[in-house]
Design brief:
- The complex is a heterodimer of chains A (243) and B (258).
- With 243 residues, chain A is an alpha/beta fold.
- Chain A is built from 9 helices and 10 strands.
- In chain A, a hairpin with a 2-residue loop joins strand 1 and strand 2.
- Chain B starts with a helix and ends with a helix.
- With 258 residues, chain B is mostly helical.
- The chains are: A alpha/beta (243), B mainly alpha (258).
- Chains A and B meet through helix 2, strand 6, helix 3 and helix 5 of A and helix 5, helix 6 and helix 9 of B.
């Protein structure tokens, strides 16, 4: 299996608070890696370090053979790594379609016709094509998140990062977003997902990384982590969900 | 009733002068506001940029110097009276530009308004959720692309009431430019008052004219603002609303297929 992301001994502090205390793990091509753990354990920070929204203080992050902590062209790197946010972060001043076209045109320099075709293709895929000309402020949370996924996919990313994509959603909308993510996983898209949806992690992921207090407490296949956890911390954390 | 008869007589006799004054006032206030906005967008826009920690140190240095210079500009022009600025700039720069009165007046208003606009734009930009920037960055967009395509359009929309207010302020405050002999409304009023010796009446008319101009402008700006906010509210829309929208959309789709 081809190694796509290699993270080695990453440290990150905010002022005096050390959030990541030496994190190392690998993501292979076509992997779906779920980062789980309590709030404040550093999972979101780790994810944000992956597309350089935060810059790790030390350690190594190698993506596709490229040392991204010392890369010259950050924007070109980011275009290859999509990100989906907890708060959707759709551009409020644009329609759904324009949201999906903007970066294609500005960053990848695609022409308007190609960008629109691509945008409509992925909007159809997430079931939002009939809203292409809607204002993003009129959408529900679940719809916004599906558009956000389509927007990221339009860039043909090699890796898609999800930062708690369902945490800001009403319960009845979580399903529609997870379904989209599930189908992407089945198509073999490489994904790194920070989530609190344990059953999703169990069903969909190929690898689960449990983080606690800025370090990786345990990692392995979903079966290992969910059925035979070895660490006391993992057991205690998972016990709250299995009850 | 003598007062209002006198007012009417002055207005009948001198309306061309008043009209000329109104034209000049609106010209310098409007062009001054637009150019001030352009200046404010440039100064405030660059001020609002926060450099990444990864940015080269030379860029950080340039930004630091820029921040200091722009801070001085803003503080000086917000902290001194426009009348003083007008007199100083007019005489200080006359040897260089060799200018006539109207361009000088527009220049003074532009540079004064620019200082206020810079702060309006900066706070407008900072009112935009950081998530908008992060989303644009995560898609690989540069600082400049993010600013122009995502942040500024929203910032200007949010700041529109303050920007419009600057225009109204300029209609009134351009009156101080009579000090450098610009034939705007106040200058005309003063010369009419001088030739009629009816000071109270003339300035009463002048006040009414200013009030008309500001109220009309305010009305127009409100209409524009309403139009801009037509399809949007600042309040989060309820899910029920979104669902109703979906239903309507689905129904439409349904009808179209049959």
């Amino acid at each position: 299996m081809k190694e796509l992301i290699k993270i080695k001994d990453v440290h990150k502090s905010f002022d005096h608070l050390e959030v990541l205390k030496g994190v190392s793990f690998e993501v292979n091509k076509n992997d779906v890696v779920c980062l789980i753990g309590a709030s404040g354990s550093g999972k979101s920070t780790m994810l944000r370090c992956l597309n350089l929204l935060e810059v790790a203080d030390s350690g190594e992050i190698i993506v596709d053979g490229q040392d991204i902590l010392h890369t010259k062209d950050i924007n070109a790197y980011r275009a290859k790594v999509g990100m989906v946010f907890q708060q959707f972060n759709l551009f409020n001043n644009m329609t759904v379609l324009k949201n999906c076209m903007l970066a294609q045109q500005k960053v990848l320099k695609r022409n308007a016709a190609d960008a629109q075709e691509k945008a409509l293709y992925f909007l159809k895929k997430v079931g939002m094509d009939s809203f292409a000309h809607a204002n993003v402020n009129t959408l529900s949370g679940g719809q916004k998140q599906r558009v956000a996924i389509a927007r990221a996919l339009c860039m043909d990313p090699e890796i898609l990062l999800f930062d708690e994509p369902t945490s800001a959603l009403d319960p009845e909308m979580v399903g529609e977003v997870l379904d989209v993510m599930k189908s992407l996983a089945q198509e073999g898209l490489t994904m790194v997902i920070v989530t609190h949806e344990m059953s999703f992690a169990k069903d969909v992921s190929t690898k689960v990384v449990f983080m606690a207090n800025g370090i990786i407490e345990e990692q392995g296949t979903p079966q290992q982590i969910f059925e035979h956890p070895t660490s006391e911390r993992t057991k205690a954390f998972l016990a709250r969900f299995n009850r | 009733m003598g007062f209002f008869t006198d007012c009417a007589n002055i207005l009948i006799k001198y309306w061309p002068s008043f009209f000329l004054g109104i034209k000049t006032t609106l010209l310098i206030a409007f062009s001054g506001t637009i150019m001030g906005l352009a200046l404010g967008l440039l100064v405030g826009g660059i001020r609002a940029i926060k450099l990444d920690k990864t940015a080269p140190s030379s860029a950080k240095m340039i930004k630091k110097v820029y921040d200091i210079i722009s801070w001085i500009y803003i503080e000086v022009f917000r902290g001194t009276p426009m009348m003083v600025q007008a007199l100083f700039l007019f005489y200080a720069l006359r040897p260089i530009f060799n200018w006539t009165y109207i361009p000088a007046g527009i220049f003074v208003i532009s540079i004064n308004t620019g200082a206020y606009m810079a702060e309006i734009i900066r706070s407008g930009i900072q009112s935009i959720d950081i998530g908008q920037t992060e989303a644009a960055r995560s898609l690989g967009m540069s600082n400049m692309q993010t600013m122009i395509n995502v942040i500024l359009p929203q910032a200007i929309k949010n700041a529109f009431p303050s920007i419009g207010n600057e225009f109204i302020v300029n209609i009134k405050d351009s009156s101080v430019l009579m000090i450098i002999s610009i034939t705007e409304l106040m200058f005309q009023a003063k010369s009419i008052a001088g030739s009629t010796y009816k000071l109270t009446e003339t300035y009463f008319i002048t006040a009414c004219v200013y009030l008309c101009m500001t109220m009309t402008t305010s009305f127009i700006l409100n209409q524009i603002e309403k139009k801009m906010n037509h399809s949007k509210t600042t309040l989060p829309q309820s899910d029920t609303f979104a669902k109703t929208m979906n239903l309507a959309k689905e129904q439409e789709e349904h009808e179209r297929t049959y």
